[in-house]
Amino acid sequence: MLLKFAEKIGASFLGCYQILVDGLRLFIETLYWIFIAPFCSRIERRKPIDLKAVSDQMVFMGYDSVLIVFFVTFFTGIVLAMQSAHQLSKMGGLIYVASLVTISLCRELGPVLTALVIAGRVGAAITAEIASMKVNEQIEALDTMAISPIRYLVVPKFIALLLMLPLLSILGDVFGILGGYVVGVFNLHINSGLYMQIAFKFLTLKDIYSGLSKAFIFAIIITMVGVYQGLKTQGGAVGVGRSTTKSVVTSFILVIVADCVMTGIYFFSGF
Amino acid sequence: MNTQQSNILLTQRLGKTYNGRQVLEDVSFEVQRGEIFVVMGGSGCGKSTLLRIMAGGVIPSSGEVIFDGKNIGPLVGEEKEKIRRRFGMSFQSAALLDSLTVEENVSLPLKEHTRLNKEVIHIIAMMKLKLVGLQGFESYMPCELSGGMKKRAGLARAIALDPEIVFYDEPTAGLDPVACAVIDRLILDLTKKLNITSIVVTHNMESVFRIADRVAMLYQGKLLQVGTVQEIKDSENPIVQQFIHGEIEGPIQMEDKLSEAVF
């Protein structure tokens, strides 16, 4: 009984270890195709990055996501302003709604909410695409043609999201601040110029850096989880559905965990 | 058959186990340059796995595959890529990339592996499409093609880089008899005219007898017999006889499957 229990723990530990190793290998291979292969000195080994595929992905991941990012962060800004106004007005600091909304969005909510939205929209799309290619033998076909699926499929997505997620986060920050502004000016009757002044008074560049650095890490997490789940898919349409769900759930959890770890690092290092 | 009689690919005591289940056991044969070599066998006998091992996609648990005097099993990276460029593969589901048009699918290997300019690649792709009778369909998306046309487009892609060996996984599965005959004719034509070696995996007996130079019969992961079409037809092995005539009675037991289907 006890032995079986130990066996189970051991098996799941080994499983986690295997996932970690596979994920790391996938990540390293992606980096190889981005940083080494395009600059190989031997011409027959040199494989340039497909810029057209990257720009197509950037449109899909970035431009097409603006609206959904707007809805999520704008209304979060509104809610944040209303909730904090109630508390702050009790202490006579109603005016600080502006800086509270701005800083919490830039440091935390902007990047995290954007990453969660993108994990749902783009992460799921990445997994579904790669998974259905896997079950339809298309990945195998690429392999037999000696075309690396990592280079052909993963690299454009990886680069595109790495560029677009920080940009979307900035947009998210802006939309959120706008939401707070709407409440502050039209509901709390704070003077428009004063609101803006207070909003940016306590905001430092560090707040924005720390938010953006998170967005980069989230982009890596979302692409790698999406690709990994896609490539691991087995078993037809059901498998594709299962992988997509797994990808979104895993991305969500990892994004939150990574956020916690990075905030911890910044917090304890006094950043 | 071709006058050049050297063997281009041979397998030596190949074995493969999946999760403790022996899928292939001790399979050894040789394929001559320029012939159509057919591997036949029932569903689940390991013939697709055998094909993938020969094409370098699956690593065997034991034994080796020798292509042009070189064991391809332990090769990795550049070496393996070089070998695989000399192979073409036609998949059961055609496996065209759905995001690309037919022409883009065919030109993909050329674009990836050669430094030819766009015009030349276009001309080669159109030539290959003409060879399989798909001229005029180059701008179609794969989802707009019928099953047979998809297979032909997949075939055009497989021969894009002028491979020495083309592997066919169930080339006629799911096609009507006329489309089957068209594909068979294509395999014959391509093999003989372009002097390619073809290795075909199928369980369609009609096509086996139409196209094969030599046939290997696989049963439960083991090689039963290798021979010319006539030798297989005259085989005294009851399993081979039952298989090629598609009889219910015989040493191949299908009862479990039948009872599963009924109840």
Describe the model.
The complex is a heterodimer of chains A (271) and B (263). With 271 residues, chain A is mainly alpha-helical. Chain A has one domain (52-268). Chain A has nine helices and no strands. Chain A has helices at 2-36, 51-61, 66-90, 97-135, 138-144, 149-186, 192-201, 205-231, 236-268. In chain A, helix 2 packs parallel to helix 6 (149-186) and helix 6 packs across helix 8. The radius of gyration of chain A is 22 Å and the shape is globular. The model of chain A has no long low-confidence stretch (mean pLDDT 92). Chain B is an alpha/beta fold and 263 residues long. Chain B folds into two domains: 7-86 and 163-262, 3-Layer(aba) Sandwich (Rossmann fold), CATH 3.40.50; 98-161, no CATH class. Helix content of chain B is 38%, strand content 25%. Chain B has helices at 47-54, 77-84, 102-113, 118-131, 147-158, 177-193, 205-211, 229-233, 238-245, 255-262; strands spanning 7-18, 21-32, 36-40, 62-67, 70-71, 87-90, 165-169, 197-202, 214-219, 222-228. Chain B is globular. At the A-B interface, helix 5 of A face helix 2 and helix 3 of B.
Keywords:
heterodimer, A: 271 residues, mainly alpha, B: 263 residues, alpha/beta, Rossmann fold, 2 domains, 25% strand, disordered C terminus
Fold blueprint:
The complex is a heterodimer of chains A (271) and B (263).
Chain A: H1 2-36, H2 51-61, H3 66-90, H4 97-135, H5 138-144, H6 149-186, H7 192-201, H8 205-231, H9 236-268
Chain B: E1 7-18, E2 21-32, E3 36-40, H1 47-54, E4 62-67, E5 70-71, H2 77-84, E6 87-90, H3 102-113, H4 118-131, H5 147-158, E7 165-169, H6 177-193, E8 197-202, H7 205-211, E9 214-219, E10 222-228, H8 229-233, H9 238-245, H10 255-262
Parallel strand pairs in B: 3-8, 3-9, 6-7, 7-8
Antiparallel strand pairs in B: 1-2, 1-4, 4-5, 9-10
